[in-house]
Amino acid sequence: MSIDWAALKAAIEVPQRFVLTSHVRPDCDALGSELAMAALLRQMGKDVTIVNDSETPQHLEFIDPEGEIKQLGKDISREEIQNGFDAFMVVDTSAWIQLGEMAEAMQEFRGVKLVLDHHVSQDDLGGEMFKDPKCEATGRLVYDAAKAWGMTITKEVATVLFTAIATDTGWFRFPSVSGSTYQAIGDLVDAGAVPSEVYGNLFENERLERVNLRGRILSSAKIIHDGKLAYSMATQQDFAETGATPSDTEDAINRTMAVTGVEAAILFVELPNGDGVKASFRSRSSLDVARLAQQFGGGGHVAAAGALVKKPLGEVVSMLLEATERAMR
């Protein structure tokens, strides 16, 4: 479904003070989309503040060199959000559970509420929804908005949008990629994005703790369902002994998908402070992991999805593996 960019522009015409947010444990699509949308809004003369529930993961701090992105409760309060802004925009999610404590901030908010997203699943966030689940990344949606509105794409905007699109397409290897993806990417490169620099920041700048955690995840990988389903996990013990954090698990699941014959994979991440288990799903078969994740309060895309289940690790592993195998039959 295509987005009515004129309608979105009309919705942001009147408000002057915007707060932007995205999902917990933000990835590059979330962060890049926030930063790029903030830049576009400022070109329109708007005041913009980006506030997330979670801090920016250490390995992704390069995307925000000025430290513009604030964290709720540390840099700004819910009360300040209620009193300081007249528009609230969510990008790259449309699920309450993915907003963390920013969900309560949005529920309390009395101004204009807008959502820009590309995920299949959604909740009613009480705002005007602008969604295209066929789009490869929310960063691509922000790019399309910039082109539709005749906005200037600076080198800084081009870089964060390139990063958003490149990562959410698995560096252009996912089925969501089309010829128009490369046309957009070419435009962003012409505007100043440097692919080698982005790749270096993402994949050639690893902390040893992250590398050691990746080794544990891969060494604990198992294959079931006649070799078609791979799964692995990262436990609290793994984090304690490696010094890594849950955000260091990002992209690890894709390595398990490299095993010959594997059609789907699940990565279980035991979160600290009894916050439950984050399950990431991947599929390269007819298995719709978005539908599977929805059974456990999550969502996402047909080939990539996630869910947060607030139960003990062992119970979550058994429950989700059973459901996945059932769906694969």
Automatic annotation (TrEMBL):
Pfam families: DHH, DHHA1. SUPFAM superfamilies: DHH phosphoesterases. Keywords: Hydrolase. Coiled coil: none annotated. Residues 231-325 form the DHHA1 domain. InterPro entries: DDH_dom, DHH_sf, DHHA1_dom, Oligoribo/pAp-PDE_c-di-AMP_PDE. Its EC number is 3.1.-.-. Residues 18-165 form the DDH domain. This is Bifunctional oligoribonuclease and PAP phosphatase NrnA.
